[in-house]
Amino acid sequence: MRIGVLGCAGRMGRAVIDEVLAAEGCTLVGGVDRDDHPTLGQDLGLLVGQSPLGVLVGTDAAALIESADVVIEFSASAATVAHAALAAASGTGHVIGTTGLNAEQDQAVCDAAHRTAIMRAANMSLGVNLLLGLTEQVARALGPDAYDIEILELHHRHKVDAPSGTALALGEAAARGRGVDLSEMADRGRDGMTGARKSGAIGFAALRGGDVVGDHVVIFAGAGERVELAHRATDRRIYARGAVAAARWLHGRPAGLYGMADVLGLTGARP
Ligand code: NAD
User: Distance from the CA of 214 to the center of ligand 1, in angstroms?
Assistant: First the structure.
């Protein structure tokens, strides 16, 4: 399977290159990044501390997408939308890990999925996908009134969107469990005289610092007790491994928008 990497010089892009090089039956056909990125023209093997591959960091996303069976992308939201349209035009499978897409960008990805197979997940780790299923189950079991749901996330200082896509996916899972709509119940930032907690709210708190790969805690706070479900990522290779597994799964599938639950064969978790 021929795999291309979009956003190849980023933290996740480099981890994906490593995984593709180690994956049996996969060939790295190229990588692209921004046209002002300092690594432009560097060898992709050297970029990740391995032997030279003779494949360089480029900028021609259209040509890369055309030449690949599947492209894996962890980049920026606007770039991801443009690349989804190119993937749709050439029928190339597209694995999307980028988060922070707005509603309009989300819709553009859904439109592209009418023409090619797209797998999109805010989090590609097995552990987080289990956490999504558990969050939905616990929210359903505890009911809407007695326990308040708060979602806490902590990420490295470079992360540009908040709350994280994973925190929002956990919020969606909790809302599904409660049978409510997250857009009506989300409380995404508290500061100053906020007044008492709104009944039924699903709260979010985002912390940033250091090199934290990604921590998520879902707190169900009741009278006299708390239930906490937590996942802590210590190595971003878990996401890269999930992305390569997703690429293998996606190859040859009909057009459509798939999630990590489909790849992992899990039910009840929709990242
Ligand atoms: P990063 O900033 O290290 O890397 C992003 C890369 O994309 C950079 O090299 C940047 O130059 C490149 N890029 C930007 N615009 C581009 C364009 N037009 N064309 C090509 N490349 C372009 O960030 P990161 O930590 O690697 O994260 C990237 C994204 O992946 C973020 O949205 C993050 O939230 C998400 N992420 C998702 C998961 C998951 O499991 N789904 C895991 C980790 C990170």
Answer: 14
Distance 186 CA to ligand 1 centre (A): 26
Question: In ligand 1, which atom is closest to the CA atom of 75?
Answer: 7
- Closest atom of ligand 1 to 79 CA is 18
Local mean pLDDT, 10-residue blocks, the chain (271 residues): 98 97 97 97 97 97 98 98 98 96 97 98 91 95 94 96 95 97 95 95 98 97 97 95 96 96 71 46
pLDDT at 267 (0 to 100): 58
Residue-wise pLDDT for 107-133, tens only, equals 999 999 999 999 999 999 989 998 999
Amino acid at 27: T
Closest residue by Cα to residue 3 from 28, 31, 33, 32: 28
Contacts of 40 (CB under 8 A, 6+ apart): 33, 57, 58, 59
Going by the DSSP 8-state scheme, the letter that residue 198 receives in this structure is P
Give yes or no for a contact between 243 and 124, defined as CB atoms under 8 angstroms apart: yes
On whether the 2-120+236-264 domain is CATH 3.60.120.10, my answer is no
Kindly state if the Cβ of 121 falls inside 6 Å of ligand 1: yes
Task: Assign domain 126-233 to its CATH superfamily.
Answer: Dihydrodipicolinate Reductase; domain 2 (3.30.360.10)
